[in-house]
Amino acid sequence: MAETKMTLKLLVDKSSDQVLFAEAGKDVVDFLLGLLNLPLSAVIKLVTEQDTMVGSIANLYQTVHTLEESYYQSSHSKSAILKVANSHPPSISSKGLLLIGNSAVGTEGYVKGVVTYTITDDLIVTPMSSISSITILNRLHVKNLAALQEQTVTLGLEQGLKLLKASLQSKTVLTDVFLSQQEVARCS
After folding, report:
1. Which of 36, 92, 120, 132 has the least CB density, counted as fewest CB within 10 Å?
2. Are 118 and 111 in contact (CB under 8 A)?
3. Is residue 79, in this structure, part of any structural domain at all?
4. Contact 5, 156 (CB under 8 A)
């Protein structure tokens, strides 16, 4: 099965090398909101496969693996905790929904598709309008409009998992995922 990729347009301030906000459709917003429905055990498994998890929750997850069956109320308890986390590899559906195994959360999605959305670097999602875009630029104290550049990027499973991890650790998620990715590509 071919990997589904979504696109979003980033407004980047080249003087600070920071994403100010992104313009995205229903599929991207549905993907982001769908992350909130993932069980914590699945989140831990997804983000620790790529890298180490910050904090102690990964230790708790590892405890489930190492604690002997005799310490659980029943053998079903351990398997229930690990069931979602150990299911099939994740993928992204054509509707932008994160699939784990055969199940998708929110099969119709979460938001309406006739709207374009603004997603700020810290993942605040609002319906897009000229006024809200100007308000964001004002709030971020952008003075040099000539330093702003539009970049179109793709969001596939790899970037989706990086977004998930960055959202747990950062307030500059879009910058961390998409601009650091470009930096690596330029250095290669």
Report:
1. 36
2. no
3. no
4. yes
Domain that holds residue 117: 6-52+87-187
Mean pLDDT per 10-residue interval, the chain, length 188 residues? 82 95 92 82 72 64 75 67 62 69 60 87 93 92 94 92 88 93 48
pLDDT score, position 188: 39
Q: Tell me if 94 is assigned to some domain.
A: yes
d(CA 68, CA 172): 40
| pLDDT tens, position by position, 103-147 | 555 557 778 888 899 999 999 999 999 999 999 999 999 999 999
Rg (CA), the chain: 19
Residue 4 pLDDT:
78
Q: Are 94 and 107 in contact (CB under 8 A)?
A: no
Please check whether residue 57 lies inside any domain of the structure: no
Q: What are phi and psi of 119, to 5 degrees?
A: -125, 115
Query: Cα(1)–Cα(170) distance, rounded to whole angstroms?
Result: 32
